[in-house]
Amino acid sequence: MSPSSPPPTPPRTIEDLMAQALAMEREAVARYSELADMMETHNNLEVAELFRKMASYEALHVKQILADMGWSEGPVPPRQPGPWSAPEGPESVPIDEMHYLMHPWHALNLALAAELRAEAFFADLVRQAGDDEIRRAAEEMRAEEAEHVELVQAWLAKVPAPEEGWGEDPDPPRYED
Ligand code: ZN
How far is the CA of 37 from the centre of ligand 1 (A)? Predict the structure, then answer.
């Protein structure tokens, strides 16, 4: 399985490219925040904080794109069909990979996979770019995602891998239906 699928249509203008990047970063902010809320609900505060921090990095990226383009809000591309062929943006951690007892190690691995997908997405755009301006901009975005990858990797090196049985809860939550 390839880490990312190429977007159905490569951006033809710099506005196109940045609109795609913006949509992707916004989705990443929304998803990381959602995961943080989810972990807070389960009182998994360490992991919640970690996702909160990832959301803040991606939010910086959103701000930077808006500033670079001189956009106040930016175009909001239609959600369907999106600029990518998968149902979710490449930088979004899939909700179904979450576990309420997950350790920071798991969260960081999910974040790492998302950031690697984002980097691969922009690398595809660099390859498909029709002119130098688009290629340069895509390369800049790719380099920033590579920084996120490095950051998550450095963080990951500092957290212990979970022991076996981490997913067993002696006092599991009860859900009413
Ligand atoms: Zn990122």
Answer: 19
